[in-house]
Amino acid sequence: MYRTMIAALALSWLSVTAYAQNDLVISNVRVFTGQEQIEKASIVVNGGKITEISAAPATGRVLIDGEGKTALPGLIDSHAHIFAATAGVTEAETRDFIRTKLQERLLAMLRHGVTTVKSLGDPTDIILQVRRDLREGNLAGPRMLVVGPIFTAVGGHPATSPVCQGDSWCRSTTAAEVATEADARRIVGRLADQGVDGIKIVYAGGVREGIEMKKLAKPVMEAIVDESRKRGLRATAHVVDEPSSLEVLAAGAWGIEHGPSEPLTSNALIGALMKPARSYTPTLYGNTRNNPALFQVKARTVADAYKAGVRIIAASDVSGAMPPGRALLEEIQLLVKAGLPPEAALRSATSSAAVHVGKEKEIGTLAPGMMADILVVRGNPLANIADLFQTYQVIQNGRVAYNDDAPSATFVMPRLKNGQPDLQGMWLGAPGTRGGNNHKLFDGIEYLPAAKPIQADFEGRLGNDNLYFWCATGSIPSQMIYIPFPFMLFQDGTNFVIFHEYAHDVRVIPTDGSSHPDPKKYSGMNGDSRGHWEGDTLVVDTTNFSKGRRRLNMHGDFLDENSHIVERFTLIGPDRLRYDLRVDDPTVLAKTWTATDVLQRRPKDDWIMDTSCREGEKDISHLRESPDYKPASNPPGGERK
Ligand SMILES: [Zn+2]
């Protein structure tokens, strides 16, 4: 009765909002629903839930332009340690961690698109309080699922492993050491009453620092699994060898975590994992990032399991030494490296992960009626998984939880003595996503019919036209957002100077109100740039490009001498510089091309002399050619065009 009433209320409310302004709309976006791709759609959000995904245009109070971007279900990290081995080991250290670090680490997860996280082995009372604080909005961070302590043998991992460093409080809260079936059932029951979301067992901990960790007695393990099922909880098991994996699955465990570290000896394990209620969580990043040989072994098992149809789960096993949030993206990338297609790897952190944690009716898929937990990234991770690192916005429960474009409320603009924002330093476009891959980066360029063949003709021909081979960097804007080398910004109050790594070319941009020279008198590979300030944004206008075709990237994207480029630089955080680009080119582009990137500040010890093209070679004249400039000799590799 109560349920029916709520459903009726929800329906009438929906029909009203259909005619009103929507809460939030992501328009013109490529969608990965968690199951399949939709090339272009609008996602409509109302009341914290997705109400529509369609090609029909829609407006919203919050409108996110999805052009050149991809929307995915918020990511689910099914294996994370929020405190254990992160907070320190004693109760005092843990309390201190909550006060000083917890919020920052939870936000780092959100910033990377992780909207749900399952905590393992964290002290029950504390993690349940964190879950409450997140639900009530006292903390910002992912939706938290908890299992409490990890069931293990008396003296098993993690009770006596280095995790707790002998601290008794840590040992008693991180691990539930059980000796008998009765103990096992009693503790599962107690945790169920406390409201945990699942159960985690360390069945066979393997070998740590040369000491074999004690294995849980098989009947005790079976009792934990059985009691969990009776209480409606899914038990998963930490195992690192094949026989133990088979035993926990035979007992009815929902999934194995980590899995065998040795090559499989038969098809038995993959067969056991094939049942619908089984998952395999290999934790490649957590276990193999410093061990390439182990990666090869586990990658083989993952690839075989995937091919057979096993549900693979991406989970980070994040703890103190790993970057929260980012660790899950690394895991997804490693699954691709192991042989999963990007779409399958993304499923393992979305729709498959939702089934794994038993929340598939609420999260993990973008569809009407589902929670509006949405990750929007720049680019297309379905074609290039590294684009997953290019977070644009994260929507949680229908609200913008992270916006890469917006300055944070606490950010104070650093300024020069003359009041100009101080943008000086070493910068690089989103690291790890640029350059050299020959994938189409410049989404959104539309060529005129006459220009298309020139672009298409370039594809696959990397020999003489390879920009790096020429020591060329593809001119503006490639130097800023495509090539994987940093650049340094200087300001002297009148000029804005950009000094690039690799070809070591320098762009001097006067901000003194002067205008472009006559193109007959001056033109160049990088054109002529003039800057002015609009509020705290530096606007740079560039024309006067040299005659002839100019490559933008390895894909053959290009502009010609008629291009007019406007770049806008806005500092939006101590280490984030927003770069907005607008390009018109009446002889190449069918329409104005716009793009945005957020440049990241490089570490202090990074230096633009790290990489140089043609070390010692002084001739970079091809970067400064004028209309009547004739090169003295051909560059290596071919004719100059
Ligand atoms: Zn773990």
Q: Provide the gyration radius in Å.
A: 28 Å
What percentage of amino acids are in beta strands?
25-35%
Number of separate strands: 30
Structural class of the helix and strand makeup?
A: alpha/beta
Low-confidence stretches: 1-19, 431-440, 460-464, 623-641
Bound molecules: zinc ion
Shape: elongated
Largest beta-sheet details:
9 strands, antiparallel
Strand order of the largest sheet: 23-22-21-20-30-29-28-25-24
> Architecture of the largest domain in CATH?
Alpha-Beta Barrel
CATH fold field value of the largest domain: TIM Barrel
Tally the helices: 16
What gap, in angstroms, lies between the N and C termini?
Answer: 77 Å
CATH superfamily of the largest domain: Metal-dependent hydrolases
- Any idea of the CATH class of the largest domain? Alpha Beta
Mean pLDDT: 85
Helix % is 10-25%
